[in-house]
Design the sequence.
DNA sequence: CCTATCTGCGTATGCCCTACGCAATTCAGC
DNA sequence: GCTGAATTGCGTAGGGCATACGCAGATAGG
């Protein structure tokens, strides 16, 4: 019943059949998607219009629609392609999941526009699923059941994605406010926001390395998972 | 040096001075923002155009620009207002952070469009900062230093936000693929994605309650934080 | 060779944000 | 009260955007 699937997924999984008659295609889906990713990486998602993409490809805007149903479908193809292959994982679930999560975070830094696109559907693209599969493989030697493994991989994903969403925005673009710490100090007073004011007074936002928040959160999550694994390991302790 | 701040922030913090001359304003920023949130909640962010918003308010589209510099600024105001006041927290850092994170997740479910808007800047809106402050307050009685507290609150935020981003999309909108588990089973074979195929065979995606993934990840993170707190507590153990 | 098929793309539509400027309204100061 | 400055609502218009539709030329199977 492959016929019931949306066209997008058929193309993605190579189920769509290639035409035999007609002229040789000058454009190819791969070239379109690669160029679109290039534009989004360099100039941001807002700069990616069908017109600009066509100009970069040396064709007319409407030519793109022979290969892509609409712009949303193009975005799905881009999301599928941009992450590339997931990394090989070192032995040990903890090192494996840490490597996987760091690689995922690196993808978001390389392609920040992914964070602005919402799938509108749970992941069914091969690109996403290969990452999920690789993440799950980190738990192969653990006593966690399959549901727990999915939950833990997703938790790690949320952490990497969330931190990237804030950090990536901090690095790129024209900063609206140049001195973040200074602006905070100006607004946050002890009687409005006591806990936050204390943290600011402690200099937390002064010279924060952007990586710290991610690594600290990941370490805590891994510790928590370790507790669960130890509790489920029969012999160990 | 408040004058160096962007206009948006001045308005947000009530620093902007009110005009004394000129006609009584028929429109107010509060009414514009509230109506915009209403539209985005009901019909999605894509349905929120300046024209539609004006129609709902009974004014001309260009009238809005007397109160809002542009659409991006409107989105910032909406993001500031929509979350409302953070919840009061129960005693104990663990219950406190759990309550805070669940409330945050509920905000994303009530206003899914927030997940599609990127701030373009670290948070300086009073609405965001009040939530951050409340989250930090959960750690008041713990030996964690201020930097660690911020890191842990952010980690919890990432988790709630990330899970909402996937779940909210799953609940709303017209599902592209009705039978997700069935589609997965069709595509994922053991030789492509071995770990994922095992999970699917285990029935993980068949009848998953959407809350499970969030609560499981949160429990693990809290366990990890507990380890850190215990390690830093002098007397306890 | 004929014909079904496929590609590239020109034209045109409708939506979107918003720059600009005008007219009406209101208040401060005289 | 009068005058001028400030402020509001908004009509017009321009530029960008995605994309429906249909045509011309190229191609390969029969």
Sequence:
């Amino acid at each position: 019943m492959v016929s019931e699937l949306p066209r997008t997924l058929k193309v993605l999984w190579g189920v769509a059949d290639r035409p035999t008659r007609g002229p040789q295609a000058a454009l190819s889906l791969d070239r379109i998607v690669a160029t679109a990713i290039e534009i989004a990486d360099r100039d941001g998602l807002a700069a990616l219009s069908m017109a600009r993409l066509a100009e970069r490809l040396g064709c007319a805007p409407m030519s793109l629609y022979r290969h892509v149903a609409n712009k949303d479908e193009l975005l799905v193809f881009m999301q599928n392609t941009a992450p590339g292959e997931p990394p090989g994982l070192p032995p040990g679930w903890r090192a494996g999941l840490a490597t996987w999560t760091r690689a995922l975070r690196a993808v978001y830094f390389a392609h920040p526009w992914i964070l602005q696109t919402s799938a509108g559907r749970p992941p069914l693209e091969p690109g996403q699923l290969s990452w999920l599969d690789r993440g799950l493989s980190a738990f192969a030697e653990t006593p966690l059941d399959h549901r727990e493994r999915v939950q833990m991989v997703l938790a790690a994903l949320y952490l990497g994605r969330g931190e990237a969403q804030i950090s990536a925005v901090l690095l790129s673009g024209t900063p609206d406010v140049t001195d973040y710490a200074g602006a905070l100090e100006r607004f946050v007073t002890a009687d409005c926001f006591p806990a936050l004011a204390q943290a600011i007074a402690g200099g937390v936002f002064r010279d924060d390395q952007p990586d710290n928040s991610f690594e600290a959160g990941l370490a805590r999550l891994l510790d928590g998972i370790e507790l669960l694994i130890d509790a489920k390991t029969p012999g160990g302790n």
Residues 93-173+207-232 of chain A form a domain with the Tetracycline Repressor; domain 2 fold (CATH 1.10.357.10).
